[in-house]
Design a protein that fits this description.
The protein is mainly alpha-helical and about 650 residues long. It contains 28 helices and 8 strands.
Amino acid sequence: MTKLEQEIHHNGVNLSTRRGFGTKLKSGLKETFFPDDPFRQIMEEEKPSRRLIKGVQYFVPIFEWLPNYNLRLFFSDLIAGLTIASLAIPQGISYAKLANLPPLVGLYSSFVPPLVYAVFGSSRHMAVGTIAAASLLIGDTISTVADPIKEPTLYLHLIFTTTFVTGVFQACLGFFRLGILVDFFSHSTITGFMGGTAVILILQQLKGILGLKHFSTKTNLISVIEAIFTNRHEIRWETTLLGIIFLIFLQFTRHLRVKKPKLFWVSAIAPMTTVVVGGVFTYLVKGQNHGIQIVGHLDKGLNPWSIQYLNFDSRYLSAVLRAGLITGVLSLAEGIAIGRSFSVTDNTPHDGNKEMIAFGLMNLFGSFTSCYLTSGPFSKTAVNYNAGCKSAMTNVVQAVLMALTLQFLAPLFGNTPLVALSAIIVSAMLGLINYEEAIYLFKVDKFDFVICMSAFLGVAFISMDMGLMISVGLGVLRGLLYLARPASCKLGKLPDSGIYRDVEHYSNASTVPGILALQIGSPVYFSNSTYLKERILRYVKSEQGSSGDNVEHVILDFTGVNSIDTTGIEGLLETNKVLKRKGIQMSLVNPRLEVMEKLILSKFVEKIGKEKFYLNLDDAVIASQYSSRSKTNNNEETV
C-alpha cells in the first residue's frame, strides 16, 4: 500500500470520503420523503412513452389494475360489493346521526367518495365509508360554534367546510409525502383512543335505546351518566325492550362469525336486517304512538351540489380548522393502518402516500357533493376482505347500489326506528374495546400501556381531542427521552468468535483488563452529548471499581450512530480531554459515512489522530492491547 493509500485508509477506515452539499441534500431528502424509491419503476423504462404510461399508472392506480381486469375478478368483487353495500346503508344513517346530520348525508357519503377512491386508491381491500369516531368528533367540535338543532343549515354548511379542509390537508400530506406525521399516532395511542371512543359512543346511544328525548350535548363519561340519571323519567320500556332484542341479535351474529368464519355474511347483513325488520315492525304497530322514534321522511335523489355552501367565516374558522385537521390525521392513521394490515396478510400492494392523496381527494370531492368525512372503516373493510374482494371495483359496486337506493328506495328507510340505529352502533363499538391488546401492552411495555390508557381515560373523562393530544404528547415525550438518554452498553467478546455483544445480555462474553469497549446506540446530538460524556465517565469509574484494574483504553463503537451534530462533536472532544487527563486513550470504531464526513470537516480526526479510528472492534482491542504492552515494556526499560 502506498503512502497516499495509507493516509486514505488508515487501519482500514476510509478517511477521505467527502460528498458535495448537493449529494448530501439529495440523499437526505430522498430518505425523508422517498424512502420507498417510488419512481424507480418509471425511470427503469427506456422509452419515453413507457415512462409516461408508468407515470400515469403510478399517480392514477386504476390504470394499473383495470387493463388486466376480467369477468372472474368482477364476479368476486360483485359479491363483496353487494355485501358492503348492505352494511353501508345502516352505517351511513347511524353514523350521520352521531354527527347530528340528516340521514341522507350519511347515504350520500357512500356514493361519491367510493368512486373517487376506486380511481386513486392503492389498496385492493379498502371499503370506503363514514367512521364512528370521526363522526362523533367532527359533530362535537362544530357544535361548539353552531347548534345542530337551532341552526341546522349553518351547522351542515360548516360540516361540509370541515370536510373540505380535511380533504385539502390529507391530499397535501400525500402530495408532499409527509406521511411521517401520521406515524406519531402510535399503535398504543390508536388502541386507547378507539377504546375510549367506543365507551362514550355506547353511552351516547343509551339515549336511543332508552327512548330519551333530552340528553347531554357533551361526550365525556360523567356528563352522559348525569344526563341519563336526570332524564330517567323519560325512559320508555317499549323502546328499551326493542333495543335489547336488536342488540342480542347483532351480538349473536358477531359471535357466529367468530366461531364459523365462513358465515361472515350473516354478520355482514345483520345491520341491514335490523333496519328492515325494525322499519317494518314500527310501521305495522304504529311505533310512534308507543314512544318509538323514527328517522323520518327521506327524499329521493342523488347528491346535490354543496360547493356553494362552503363557509369560511372567521367566526367559525378556528373550530372548522381544528375539526378538519384532527379528524384528518385520525382518519388517515386508522385507514392507512387498516389497509396496510390487510395488504400484508394478502401480500398485495399498498402505498401510504397514495392512500393519503386518495382519502384527500374523496373528501375534497365529497365536500362538493353533500358528503361529510369518509375513510376506510375497519368493520366494512374486514367484511369486504372476508367476502373475497379482488380489487377496488367493490367500491364502484357499492357506489352504484347506493345510487340506486338514493334514487328509488330512500323513502322506505324513513320508518327506521332510532333504537335500531343505536343498537347497530353499540354492537359495532363493543368490538373496538380491545382489552386483550391493553393487557398485552402492560406485559410487554409499561410506557406503551400508559400511553394507551391516557388516550382511553382522556377521551372517556375529558374530551376526544384532549385525550388524543395527551396520548400523542406522551408518545412524543417518550421519543425525546430516547433521544436525550440514548441506550449504551458495555461490550465483551463471545468465546471462539470475533463477535462483541452486551455483557449484561451475554454472561459468557469476556472483557480485556484495562480496555473498556462501549456501544453507542443512537445519534449524538445537542440533547444527549452531555449525558453521553457523563455516562462514559461513569462506565470508567464503575469498571475501575469493580475489577480493580486501571482503564487505559476506551473504545466507542459508533456502528449504531447514524448522525451527529456540532454539539455532539464538541462533547466527544471534551470527553477525550477528560479521559486524556486520566491517562486513558479514546478510540472510535466504524463511524458511518455521514458521521465521518462531519468528523473530518470539524478537524476532529486531526485533533485525536487518524490512528484512533478502526474498522471493527477486534482490530481496536488488539491495537489497544499492543499499545498497553508497549507502554508497560517502556516503563520497565525506564526502571
